[in-house]
């Protein structure tokens, strides 16, 4: 179980991005944050991944306080954010993955096999020797997902992962997510894509840093109509 408790975050520019958000997500559940631009989705996902430290609040995974146990958090949580500057522009797809695999503690045969696996899972085989700077936007996204999959984590975070990728890649990503769910992983998203939101278990609606609603997708037929009220 992942528990997000009363998270507050104010940036240095005084913008209060999160004003006390609490959410619970069980194993094998998929959940997405939804809300207009600036609602606080990315901020919250970064805090859950412990990339950002909140001003107050707690994040518990299996009752372990992630903010106090960074090592545990790093082992158990993986995130795909699509931030371009975090890759090495002059390295190839494979070299980038090998580098980040090593940072995750993989070496030798384990590293080679894991990199091959994630390349296969994200359908990047024909691009392995292409430099990052030569990839299209969608291919960069796929590489970002591949990097997130290098780790055998418990919580997988995808921030607007399918934006800018083609339909075939979207399908591939959904299949991957389905596999993660089968393995009882917790999968978190932030997305504006209604079709994507229909496929998941729970939607948490954020507005100006506050949680204003939570929907169990299977209990509602008219998800689209409900969500459109909030954007
Ligand atoms: N690094 C930062 N420094 C200062 N303010 C920030 C920073 N990142 C985000 N903000 C502000 O915090 C608020 C929440 O931003 P956030 O990126 O979390 O929203 P979001 O819901 O993910 O938006 P989007 O749908 O546009 O991705 C916004 O008002 C934004 O301007």
From TrEMBL:
Protein name: ABC transporter related
Pfam family, one: ABC_tran
Tagged with keyword ATP-binding: yes
Keyword Cytoplasm: no
Keywords associated with the record: ATP-binding, Nucleotide-binding, Transport
Lineage: Bacteria, Thermotogati, Thermotogota, Thermotogae, Thermotogales
Stretches assigned to the ABC transporter domain: 2-231
PANTHER family from the UniProt entry: ABC TRANSPORTER ATP-BINDING PROTEIN, ABC TRANSPORTER ATP-BINDING PROTEIN NATA
Family the entry assigns: Belongs to the ABC transporter superfamily.
GO function terms (MF aspect): ATP binding; ATP hydrolysis activity
InterPro entries, A to Z: AAA+_ATPase, ABC_transporter-like_ATP-bd, ABC_transporter_ATP-binding, P-loop_NTPase
